[in-house]
Structure formats: C-alpha cells, structure tokens
C-alpha cells in the first residue's frame, strides 16, 4: 500500500512536480495545491494486458481536478466539483498497463492555505473480461444475479471476506446509486480488514456490506453466506447464497473432489 502524504508546493517553482507510486493501491495527499502535479503509477503488472484504475477522492477533496494522460492528451477523470461528492468513484481503462500517468491541475484561487487534494486509488489487471480480477472490481460490475455453483465455490476461496450471518437491515442511497446491507454476523471465516467487528455494548458481531442500487437487494429471513471484496475500505457484495444451500453445494462438490479449496464447515 503506497502513501504519499504532505506533498506541498514551492511557490517560486514553475516546474511540474512528479511523483512515482509503485503499489497497486494507495493514497496521495497534495497540500496547498498550486499549478500542477503529475502522478505516475508504475506497479509490477508486467503480465497484464489491460488495467482498470479506480479513483476515490477524499470527502474534503478541493483545490484541483484529476486528469489521465492518453497519447499525449489529458482527459478529465474527476473535476473539483465531483471530488467533493461523497462515495464518488471514477473508474477507467488505461491504455498502457505498466505505466499510468495522472495529472492534477490546481484550480486558480487566491487562498490555498486550507485546501488539500487527496484521493485513494486501486489499480487492477484483467486478463480477460471474464477473469476473476475483473469481476473483483464490484464498483465496476456488481454481481446482481445469483451465482452459479462454480462461481460460489470459487468465491469462498478468493473473496476478501466470507461471513455467515443474517440481514438486520437494508438501506438505499438513490443519490449515489448504492444500497447497504447491515449484517448480524454469526461467524467470520475470513476478512481482509476489520470491517466486521464486535459491538462492545451488545457483544454482537456486525458489519455493513455495499452493493449497487440496481441490484434491488431486499431484506430476507434466515442465514446467508456473504462473500465479496473490499474496495477503498468498504465491503462489496459478491455471492450471497442461503447458508443451507451453500452447505449442500459444497458437500456435493467435496464428495466429487470438485471443490477448488477446503472450507471450514464447523
């Protein structure tokens, strides 16, 4: 994870400052933005055919707009107005997998003392449109349909989180085209970060999972196996079968020797 913090500008300098980041995900903070800043993403993705870049500006993003360089031309990705919107994520395909150049153009203003242009980024390689890394990007392509058996068996092996639980509540955010599923967790099989945590007062394990509004998620009774991936510190829903259905599918696959990985049943 790359973190560049506290970047500031020398007032008398006329050169464009350049920063190189070599991680596939990270964040950058540009304090007191003035003139321009060029950010070159050069992760180790030599085998990738294509690259998907996603950028999420901070909630207090101000003072600059973000462009991507393509064939010597600048294409707007995030304007200063868009950057101030919460949960706004911009994704685009880069033409050069090994090197993606972003260009931050400071907005003209007299007082820059309290402004900071900061954002998070994720860079994913996709061998093909149907590859697992591409489907991992839930912000680009949500799994709104039920997963088939093969997808489900792969999900328990490769997802960032796998938890057993029930749905406490479902809320919808039409402005940002998202829904949030609040989950009461019975067992955490795996999680990348601490999204699902124990409530100190009740002792109950809980956590929020996001999905796209177009998936039309509704509250249902019973226990589910929630799987998915994390992006920008948030859990995004992948496959979510009823737990009893998952158990039937997994046990049948295990008897045939068709399970891609071992899963802790007890």
Summarize this entry quickly.
By secondary structure, this protein is mainly β. The chain has helices at residues 80-83, 132-136, 149-158, 243-256; strands spanning 2-7, 17-21, 25-31, 36-41, 50-57, 64-70, 73-78, 90-94, 100-106, 116-126, 161-173, 178-191, 197-198, 205-212, 224-231, 234-237.
Note down, in words, how this protein is organized.
The protein is mainly beta. It is 12% helix and 44% strand. It is elongated. The two termini are 34 Å apart. 31% of the residues are buried.
Order of helix and strand elements from N to C terminus? EEEEEEEHEEEHHEEEEEEH
Structural class: mainly beta
**Biggest sheet: strand arrangement:** 13-14-12-11-15-16
Rg is 21 Å
Instruction: Give the integer mean of the pLDDT values.
Output: 81
The number of helical elements comes to: 4
Q: Percentage of helical residues?
A: 10-25%
The poorly predicted ranges are: 127-141
Report how far apart the termini are.
Answer: 34 Å
Beta strands, count: 16
Helices and strands in order:
Layout: E1 2-7, E2 17-21, E3 25-31, E4 36-41, E5 50-57, E6 64-70, E7 73-78, H1 80-83, E8 90-94, E9 100-106, E10 116-126, H2 132-136, H3 149-158, E11 161-173, E12 178-191, E13 197-198, E14 205-212, E15 224-231, E16 234-237, H4 243-256
Parallel strand pairs: 1-3, 2-4
Antiparallel strand pairs: 3-10, 4-9, 5-8, 5-10, 6-7, 6-9, 11-12, 11-15, 12-14, 13-14, 15-16
What would the keywords be for this entry?
elongated; 266 residues; 16 strands; five-stranded mixed beta sheet; mainly beta
């Amino acid at each position: 994870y790359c973190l560049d913090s506290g970047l500031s500008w020398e007032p008398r300098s006329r050169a464009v400052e350049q920063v190189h980041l070599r991680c596939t995900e990270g964040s950058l903070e540009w304090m007191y933005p003035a003139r321009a800043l060029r950010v070159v993403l050069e992760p180790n993705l030599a085998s990738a055919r294509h690259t998907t870049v996603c950028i999420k500006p901070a909630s207090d993003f101000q003072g600059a707009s973000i462009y991507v360089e393509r064939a010597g031309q600048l294409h707007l990705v995030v304007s200063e107005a868009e950057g101030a919107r919460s949960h706004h994520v911009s994704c685009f395909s880069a033409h050069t997998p090994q090197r993606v150049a972003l260009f931050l153009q400071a907005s003209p203003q007299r007082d820059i003392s309290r402004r900071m242009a900061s954002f998070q980024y994720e860079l994913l390689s996709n061998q093909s449109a149907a590859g697992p890394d591409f489907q991992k990007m839930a912000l680009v392509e949500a799994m709104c349909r039920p997963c088939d058996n093969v997808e489900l068996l792969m999900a328990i092996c490769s997802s960032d989180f796998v938890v057993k639980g029930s749905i406490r509540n479902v809320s919808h955010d039409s402005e940002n085209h998202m829904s949030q599923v609040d989950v009461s967790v019975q067992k955490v099989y795996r999680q990348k970060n601490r999204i699902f945590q124990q409530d100190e007062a009740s002792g109950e394990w809980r956590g929020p999972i996001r999905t796209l509004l177009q998936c039309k998620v509704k509250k249902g009774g019973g226990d589910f196996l929630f799987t998915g991936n994390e992006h920008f510190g948030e859990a995004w829903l992948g496959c979510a079968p009823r737990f009893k259905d998952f158990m039937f599918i997994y046990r049948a696959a295990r008897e045939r020797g068709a399970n891609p990985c071992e899963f802790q049943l007890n």
